[in-house]
């Protein structure tokens, strides 16, 4: 299974029940196709950087999940046919470094303290006293 993050922006004209229904729909698409949702981040209504389809605001929602690559095509297809989606993105975390970053994002979304990697302290080596001997 690969590590993914998806974010989508819903139209601001939707009422709370419709927003919840759309979010649940996309969560269901992920779980029904064999994905495992780790956590979700509800970012709420925000101003857009630029106007999209005459909207200046949008409802942001992020899902962190693990899935097989075949799920992504189905998820993107559902994003494209849904008229309430203004924008979406799916990010794949491939390398170990990226997967660690993904895990820290999941922990942050869950409000867990990050497991900080502790560097081993350098052992202090005693400095050798180098005194010059006076030559006669």
Question: Can you give a write-up of this model?
Answer:
With 136 residues, this protein is an alpha+beta fold. It is 32% helix and 35% strand. The chain is built from three helices and four strands; from the N terminus they run E-H-E-E-H-E-H. It has a four-stranded antiparallel β-sheet with strand order 2-3-1-4. A hairpin with a 2-residue loop joins strand 2 (36-52) and strand 3. The radius of gyration is 24 Å and the shape is globular. Mean pLDDT is 83; it is low at 117-121.
Q: Name the average pLDDT.
A: 83
Sequence stretches where pLDDT stays below 50 over 5 or more residues: 117-121
Termini Cα gap: 77 Å
Q: Count the E strands.
A: 4
Any idea what the radius of gyration is? Answer: 24 Å
Based on helices, strands and strand pairing, what is the structural class?
A: alpha+beta
Write down the secondary-structure element order. EHEEHEH
Annotation field: number of helices: 3
Describe the strand arrangement of the main beta sheet, using strand numbers.
Answer: 2-3-1-4
